[in-house]
Design a protein that fits this description.
The chain has helices at 13-33, 56-76, 86-94, 153-159; strands at residues 46-50, 112-120, 123-133, 136-144. By secondary structure, it is α+β, with helices and mostly antiparallel strands. The chain is globular.
Length: 160
Amino acid sequence: LKVRVVRSSPPSSQFKATFQESYQVYKRYQMVIHKDPPDKPTINQVRLVPVSFEDPQFKSSFSQSAALFAKYQMAIHKDAPSECGENEFTRFLCDSPLEAENLPDGPDCGYGSFHQQYWLDGKIIAVGVIDILPSCVSSVYLYYDPDYSFLSLGVYSALR
């Protein structure tokens, strides 16, 4: 048995070289120990979208995200439909005091507010609202399709 400590942040060359192999071990562990289904969202099914109506990905997925938010709020928090329309969604999870900023020594995506969208079979099944800041990532809110609660997307999102 050989044990190695590999720097994950910032990612070292060893981390990058062994990422896929490590991910496969993680995925198998989750399936065997935690009984996760094999179709649980993968890295390729997660999109980080800047919260900006100027961003084409954000604009094109806005209606789907807002509808998912309403479904989640009504099922999980028992909100009335009038409490979770597009205006309430925009006010609560799209309007942010943070300004987008791209610095040369910062992450490729830049700093600011983002929607981390989890896609399965061409539809959004969860959204993690996060702020990426110079010294941390802040999880603001997570909402998901209650039909997929068996995937434990809140836990998956937190670990991710």
